[in-house]
Design brief:
With 105 residues, this protein is an alpha+beta fold. Helices cover 41% and strands 28% of the residues.
Length: 105
């Protein structure tokens, strides 16, 4: 989930529209027209969906990936304490982990 952004036509700066969306769903959404109040130039800007994008901060994904890795490590340690050593390398492919992580958050 991220914030739908547009460029202020007066200043060229990126501004949030107040909408939240998933990047892929927003990209596939039908064409629509909207207005957003710009706090930079204190005016309403009219825009079409094709002029907007979804901003999902990289830091957010890094934090979630780190939390997921920590949780996995803790699960392995817990399994080792109950079942003995656990074979490493039985993890999901990276693409599956990323998809699971995105679905979870």
């Amino acid at each position: 989930m991220g914030v739908v952004m547009i460029k202020c036509p007066g200043t060229g700066q990126d501004i949030p529209t107040g909408m939240k969306a998933d990047r892929e769903r927003f990209r596939c959404s039908p064409v629509f027209f909207a207005r957003t109040f710009c706090s930079i130039c204190q005016a309403d800007h009219e825009w079409f969906a094709r002029e907007a994008w979804v901003h999902e901060p990289e830091e957010k994904w890094r934090m979630h990936e780190a939390a997921f890795a920590l949780q996995s490590a803790q699960s392995r340690r817990a399994a080792q304490s109950v079942n003995g050593p656990v074979a490493v390398g039985r993890s999901l492919p990276a693409s599956s982990c990323a998809a699971a992580l995105r679905a979870h958050w």
